[in-house]
Amino acid sequence: LGSLFDPVGMFAKEQLRFTAMNEIPLLVTFAMALYVPTTSVFIQYSSTMPSMLAVLVTYDYGATFFKNLQRLMGVTFGNTLPLLLMSVIELFD
């Protein structure tokens, strides 16, 4: 348990970089979900945006942004393509 809360390990440069890299987008999406107007596309007080970002964020070196963008595109297309397909089918109904 002592090694879990070791100040040397907690405040290492790599740990602080990881925290800043992931905390800033989470705080921005949390603020957007909290303060977005009710006339917007987003739903106010919804935890969907911040929680989806927390799930999609990865801890890698290299093409982290590109990998996260691909994951986000997969989630977006997985949610919107069925709706678009159903609306096209409804046109022929």
Could you spell the SSE succession in H and E letters? HHHH
Tally of separate helices:
4
Which regions have little confidence, pLDDT < 50, spanning 5+ residues?
none
Give the class from helix and strand content and strand pairing: mainly alpha
Question: Gyration radius, to the nearest Å?
Answer: 19 Å
- Overall mean pLDDT stands at 77
Number of strands: 0
Please outline the major beta sheet.
none
**Terminal residue distance:** 63 Å
The percent range for helix content is: 55-70%
Task: Tell me the strand percentage band.
Answer: under 5%
Shape: elongated
Can you walk through the features of this model?
The chain has 93 residues and is mostly helical. The chain is 69% helix and 0% strand. The protein contains 4 helices and no strands. The longest helix is centred in the last third of the chain and has 28 residues, at 64-91. It starts with 6 loop residues before the first helix and ends with a helix. 0% of the residues are buried. The model has no long low-confidence stretch (mean pLDDT 77).
List keywords for this structure.
93 residues; elongated
Q: What is the element layout, followed by pairings?
A:
Blueprint: H1 7-10, H2 13-35, H3 48-56, H4 64-91
Helix pairs in contact: 2-3
Task: Write a compact overview of the structure shown.
The longest helix has 28 residues, at 64-91. The chain contains 4 helices and no strands.
